[in-house]
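Model the whole thing, not chain by chain.
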Amino acid sequence: MSDQPHLQVKDLSYRYEPEAPLALDGVSLVVPHGQFVAVLGHNGSGKSTLAKLLNGLFLPTEGQVTVSGMDTRDDGKVWDIRRTAGMVFQNPDNQLVATRVYDDVAFGLENIGVPSEEMPARIDEALKLTGMLEFADRAPHLLSGGQKQRVAIAGILAMHPEALILDEATAMLDPRGRKEVLDTVQRLNREQGITVVWITHFMQEAATAQRVLVMDHGKIAMDGTPREVFSQVERLRALRLDVPPMTHLAQLLRQRGVDIGMDVLSVDDMVKEVKRLCPSCLNS
Amino acid sequence: MLRDITLGQYYPVDSVVHRLDPRAKIVLAFMYIIAVFMVPSLWLYLPVLAYLVLATWLSKLPARMMLRSLRPMRIILIITFILNLFFASGTTPLLRLGRVTIWQEGLMNALVFTFRLVFLVTGSSILTLTTSPVTLTDGLERLASPLKVIKFPAHEMAMMMTIALRFIPTLVEEADKIMKAQTARGADFESGNLMARARAMIPLLVPLFISAFRRAGDLAMAMEARCYRGGEGRTRLNKLQFRTRDLLALLTMLALYLVILLPGWLW
């Protein structure tokens, strides 16, 4: 079962309306179980469309999408697919249904027909995993953006999914909320082995993923580890994307003749490189 | 300014009445309203008063909460009293003020009608004070579900009420934000006559509606992503259970009916 690719996309094309241009154009992609994939791309590159095709909210115009072997075109499987691949959306206000955090986490369980007696344990577990247990009785509108997104994630976790698809889930949050949500999702990926598709336009977030996809005009333009992708600075520029700040700094230093490595992504990497080049610097 | 709106008037304490099945409470409230209309004479309001005091005490509601529910009604109460006092005629004059006569029957009528309103409002507010809006919605859905046979959308109605409750604070906040944004650009919501003010609301309402529709679209997509597919095959977090105490509560209401109606049958 787990040898099978978790999310599989074959020659996928999608258009919103019959005459509209292709939003996705022949995308093929295999995501194994437990992988953390970041998807980058400027507005209109097709990354959100891809997300909605992954759990059957949209159906392929051409090609095929399978989740754990289930085809999203199969009518009988659509609810299993959505339970397996949970989705978090951009606007934290527009995805919570109930007037109380606890009841909202129950919403998905009610929909998939979990017996009432089993719900409290699953809700508590999900709230604990997202660190929201102490807010169980709060009204959603009194929470911060990051907390609301964590409630949305808890609502999905309670359904025991195998994959999380986050469609720019941090785009409307402040830096603290962004970190909160990213930390939560990374922990779930590490500890629960949940496959993550993290759609974002923040380069720093993508730098922490295992794999980075860059989309452009409905096609996958780049695919590789963060180091492989972000070292191609010129290519990223051409795709109208920035590189993480430390990668940018390394590139500027290299242009001025400093012999710094190509694969600097984070502040830690930069510190390591500086220490290598100048062992006596940064001693404090 | 818009933030003062509190939704419902739920008073969260733990009491026997709070714990009653919402269906039992809704039925009780209906039976109580009918009882108040059936009270035949002034002194038979005494058992109703006793029932109300007992219910208030059992629900651990402060008396001022109950009286506060009368405040928005005060003008209607006064008008009811005055109209009935001066415009009824009878046989026993009580007081002559120039050409106007106040009759004893008029006074009785005025008191009966005024008390009827007072008891209706305070009594039915116990329902909303002791039941959270969500529980109330749940109860209504369950009570209305037999009507599904005649295609009455009980689940859909309850879901709409829940979503409305969830989004009112969000939309109020948004209205506030738009209002400030428009004020900052010179819009004036506070002066001018009624027409001018109504017209000033247009730049507030148009963006608010647009955003509400967008939210509805987003929410529908999010609900579908969380496997929502209507009421069919859905389980509920809170199972409603009709217990002995709910039966006892309904029996107290029967007792009240007996006390109110027996004198009329016996004499």
